[in-house]
Amino acid sequence: MKRDVEMYKLKVYTIKKLKALQRLIEENQQKDWLTVNEVIEDFNISRKTFDRLREKGLKVSQPKRNGKILVERREIVNFLNR
Predict the structure, then answer these.
(1) What CATH number did the domain enclosing 54 receive?
(2) Which of 10, 35, 58, 81 could be bridged to 53 by S-S, CB 3.0 to 4.6 A?
(3) Do 25 and 48 belong together in one domain?
(4) Of 37, 34, 23, which Cα lies nearest the Cα of 79?
(5) Rounded to an integer, what distance in angstroms lies between the CA atom of residue 71 and that of residue 17?
(6) Which of 46, 42, 28, 47 is closest to 76 using CA atoms?
(7) Claim to verify: residue 53 and residue 23 sit in the same structural domain
(8) Number of domains, the chain
(9) pLDDT score at 54
(10) Which residue segment(s) compose the domain that 23 sits in?
């Protein structure tokens, strides 16, 4: 009986975690602009690789001098597919 309760708790915990991950994925897919850290995480690249992509022509937006660097999601996807 105790084992059944533990298994049930584990299933509930797993379902909650999966739903939270699904919400996180949906939120990230809806974002049009990504920060550098989000690009690095989402596309599994290093900061050095990101800087090289910028040197090769990846278009970024930096509204303020020394401010956040933003990249449009479709821009980086198109750039990486070339």
Answers:
(1) 3.90.105
(2) 58
(3) no
(4) 34
(5) 29
(6) 42
(7) no
(8) 2
(9) 94
(10) 1-30
